[in-house]
Amino acid sequence: MPLDYKRILSALAVLLCLLLPAAALAAKVNAEPGIEPGQVVVDEAGLLDRSERAELARHIEGLQEKHGIGIAVVTKKSLHGKDIVKYTDNLMNQRFSPGQNGNTVLLIAIDQRDFQIVTDAKMHAIITNDGGAPYLRDAFLDDLSDGRYQAAFLAYADTVDELVSYYEKEGKPFDPADQFSWIALGIAVILALVVMYGVQSYLVSMMSNVQPGYGAGAYLLDDSIRLEAPTDTFLYMTVTRAPKPKESDRDGGSDIGGGHGGIGGKF
Amino acid sequence: MAKTSVNYQCPNCSAPLPYQPGKEKAVCEYCGTEFEISVLEELYRHAEERAAQERAAQEAKWDTDAAGSEWTEEEAAALRAFTCSSCGAEIVSDENTMATECCYCGNPTLLPSRFAGMLKPDYIIPFKKTKQEAVAALKEFYKGKYLLPSSFTGGNRVEAIQPMYVPFWLFDAEVEGHATFRAYQDHVFETSDEIITETNVYECLRSGTMRYERVPADGSKKMDDSYMDSIEPFDFSELVPFQATYLAGNLADKYDVDAEAAVPRADMRMSQTTVDVLEDAVTGYDRKEIQSSSVIKEDSKVAYAMVPVWILTTRYENRPYTFMMNGQTGKVVGSLPIDEKKKWLYPSVAALVSIPIVYWLAKLFV
Ligand SMILES: [Zn+2]
Ligand SMILES: [Zn+2]
Predict the structure, then answer these.
(1) CB contact B273 to A (< 8 Å)
(2) In terms of Cα–Cα distance, which of A67, A59, A124, A72 is closest to A100?
(3) Would you call A192 and B354 a contact, using CB atoms and an 8 Å cutoff?
(4) Number of Cβ pairs closer than 8 Å across A and B?
(5) What is the value of ipTM here, to two decimals?
(6) Are B92 and B127 part of one and the same domain?
(7) Is the pLDDT of residue B325 over 90?
(8) Are residues B221 and B321 in the same domain?
(9) What is the pTM of this model?
(10) For residues B242 and B92, is the Cβ–Cβ distance under 8 A?
(11) Residue B278 and residue A227: Cβ atoms within 8 Å?
């Protein structure tokens, strides 16, 4: 009995038509899984193990309660080219805004090694573009770059805690310009020593005007100078190559619209 | 005659650069720089020329014999010489002037000695500044010297002030200078991840002639060379032919550095300035450095002159301090004592004041 190719083909076509939307649906579900209400750690990229996830979540929940704020850490394998700032901001607006006193989300896109923090209007007033935002980033970026994800996420949460506590206590946002800086003091002391040395050298040099003579310029008859035509010969060329200093991403945070703020970069 | 085996040196790194016959270019095995053989040959030729010029420079001698002249018997008879029993300084004066104390060490015992062994100067610059002017100029010199001990000016008196004619050899010459410079031109451009600097290296030869007149070198060992350099310049256009009458009432230092011995200092000063003039003619480059130079003097002449100097001595904490004033222009030179407390106090105050200011500035950047 001859095989009925037509029937088999049409059956396959029907099957395909049924399966494709299901596959697409499955992919969609995988990309944007449902986030349970109250969940603060969403580790889609699988950077943490189960116990780390639990510990981080417990820690963040404690801080949320303490300040009435929202903190969330989200890791993704890829954003598939979506704008990370908009994406993270939307995510915060839709999923992670439990706090009365402000909310922030840290999102990691592991394929491009991008990180992004967003803050809502209240949190943005606490973590300012030039003050808290770079301070917060610098607190976890090294750990993040070195792959110590748990340490980086804990540092992020603890630094948010620190900045919010500072705001509650001082009534104004953290600003490194207000803080005492040992580095600046060190620079000041070193430069003061340079000033001291310079002033002393100058004062001592005033005490004597005795110095060996140089040259006989005072006795050269200027109009007697006759120069011959110069001879300049090209000898050779050398080439030196120096790697360009990497563009520093050490600037501050920025406004991202609607009173929200953000800071991000590569790690 | 063609050289059979020329081994060049790499002009960039000085490594041996073997000659490859029949090739137009040579590449250094060590630094990888490429050279035209014709350029290397030219460099080699220039170096040989320079060596010849250096030989010529060494052969050119000053005619020092013509400097100074003999005294007449009458003139010599009217002069007296004194020798300091302490420091050995020899001082000359006319018969009516007594040197009472040594102007170098303050020793009051000066032994008369036979006047001899000193040529008659060709020229002299007579004193134009008086004793009062010298004292006033020294007071002025103290002003604005913050580290001067307060007791120095308070209890201070000028212990001795003496007019002294100091012997100088004056060198005239037409010089021919040759110098080789290495000059560099940088072209910097950037790619997306590198900064590339291309440096073109040139050999620049500069030659020229110029004339110096009356380059001075003092003829006294007792006079500190640095003091004598610092007291310059003298306006040698006011030189007048020497006459013994100018010595009346003044002292003169008997030279103990003859013209021949003063030559190296004069040579050095002329060479420095000649090379500077040639270096100024190397323009259009980012950097330059001198490789070699030779300065050949021609048509040279040496004269012997006396120039006027006021020597002021004062004592502070048992140490003599000597100041000198140019007896023609009034310029004072000298080294003042330093108050050790003030030396540390003032700079410390400046440092303490600057700390908060610098801290505040540093905060803007860290
Ligand atoms: Zn080389
Ligand atoms: Zn003496």
Answers:
(1) yes
(2) A67
(3) yes
(4) 216
(5) 0.81
(6) yes
(7) yes
(8) yes
(9) 0.67
(10) no
(11) yes
CA angle B137, B141, B145 (to 5 degrees): 165
Same domain for B42 and B108? no
The count of domains in chain B is 2
The whole domain housing B17 covers 1-59
Q: What is the DSSP string of B92-156?
A: EEETT----S-TTT----EEEE---S-PBPSEE----S-HHHHHHHHHHHHTT-TTS-HHHHHS-
Residue B190 domain-assigned (yes or no)? no
Tokens of residue B241, six digits: 């032919």
Say whether B205 and A188 touch across the interface (CB within 8 A). no
Q: Do A220 and B211 touch (CB under 8 A)?
A: yes
Express each pLDDT in A234-243 by its tens digit.
Answer: 999 999 998 8
Phi (first) and psi of residue A148, to 5 degrees: -90, 75
Q: Quick check: is B283 in a domain?
A: no
Q: Which domain holds residue A125?
A: 41-177+254-266
Structural domain includes residue A197: no
SS3 A53: helix
The 10s digit of each residue's pLDDT in B191-201 is 888 899 999 99
Indicate if B93 and B75 belong to the same structural domain: yes
Residue B27 is encoded by which pair of tokens? 């590449």
Protein residues with C-beta less than 5 angstroms from the ion ligand 1:
B 10, 12-13, 15, 28, 30-31
Query: Which residue(s) pair with A266 in the sheet?
Result: A114
Q: What is the pLDDT of residue B171?
A: 93
Q: In total, how many domains does chain A have?
A: 1
Q: Which ligand is nearest to the CA of B101?
A: 2
Asked whether residue B74 falls in the same domain as residue B165, the answer is: yes
Q: Does B201 touch chain A (CB under 8 A)?
A: yes
CATH of the domain at A89: 3.10.310.50
